[in-house]
Amino acid sequence: MDRIKSSFSIKNLEHISGIKAHTIRIWEKRYNLLSPERTDTNIRRYSLDSLRKLLNITLLYSNGVKISKIAKLNIDEISQLVRQISLESKSEQTSINAFKLAMVNFDTSLFDLTFDELIKEKDFEFVYMNVFVPLMMELGILWQTNTISPSHEHFITNLIKQKIHVQTDIIQAKKENRTDDPCFILFLPENEIHELSLLFLNQLILSKGFKTIFLGQSLPSDSLSTFLNFNSTIHFVTFCTVEPNPDKMNEFVEDFNEQILLKSDSTLSIFGNRTKDITLEILPTKVYTFTGLHKFKADFLNRDKIL
């Protein structure tokens, strides 16, 4: 079973907070900020409460509050000041730290408040690319090194998915359907289940005024041929994060080209880690690979250029 991690080493605290272990030890000794337990071999172990406190301290410290001042505050005063700074700060890193604090506390309210303040100042594309993406990269490393539990990662991922769905619904409620709109069909290859990036891309394409059909996880390429009966000019879009396997990527591209692209005027755009496993020298003419959004947006989401 997935158990919530409740005991942390000083290295765990360093990885999550970004504060060096040496500095944590100094803060303990000089300001009595944390009180770790000791194992039989005299190794520090920190509770979940200690981690929460350190994340709060880190957020204050990174926003210019002196450690000597923080040491004089009680837990409630620290928490109140953290909330105030989190909601008022314009720094993306401060928002990331606030989201990490929300993760550790499983605090949906703090997550929502932090997001609401961000979206007042920035559009959703900025929030996703400059806050959510770096946050998920950090959490991915923390999860892989067993610094946090899968529960933490799932908690944040699902809250981000909720925000994408809300933003998507807002756009769809305002959008007027046009029969001449290019159509983007978004799907994941067989056995690929990592759909967060695809959900965001669906929202982004809609925000630029185009029509999308979102199909989600694990679809065989040949099942997509049915769409050609309705429209022979489709922009297929996929993310290959862990699937297909590296030695199967060229075969995936070749099969898609034969089953779909050679029978239509459609194109395929591929994002994700697995793009590096595609042999570009033999890439079909209607298949495109992307490592970021800038070129994709310029090539396919510029209405003046396309329509």
Structure in words:
The protein has 13 helices and 8 strands. By secondary structure, it is an alpha/beta fold. Helix 6 runs antiparallel to helix 7. It has 2 domains: 163 residues, Multidrug-efflux Transporter Regulator, Chain: A, Domain 2 (Orthogonal Bundle), CATH 1.10.1660.10; 130 residues, Rossmann fold (3-Layer(aba) Sandwich). The N and C termini lie far apart (52 Å). It is elongated and about 70 Å long. The strands form 2 sheets. A 5-stranded parallel beta sheet has the order 5-4-6-7-8, sandwiched between helices.
Largest sheet: 5 strands, parallel
Low-confidence stretches: none
CATH architecture of the largest domain: Orthogonal Bundle
User: Which whole number gives the mean pLDDT?
Assistant: 88
The N- and C-terminal alpha carbons lie at a distance of 52 Å
**Count of discrete domains:** 2
Shape: elongated
Strand portion, in percent?
5-15%
The first-level CATH class name of the largest domain = Mainly Alpha
Quickly give the structural class: alpha/beta
Helical fraction: 40-55%
| Element pattern in H and E | EHHEEHHHHHHHEHEEHEEHH
* Largest sheet, spatial ordering of strands: 5-4-6-7-8
Topology, number of strands: 8
Oligomeric state: single chain
Q: And the CATH topology of the largest domain?
A: Multidrug-efflux Transporter Regulator, Chain: A, Domain 2
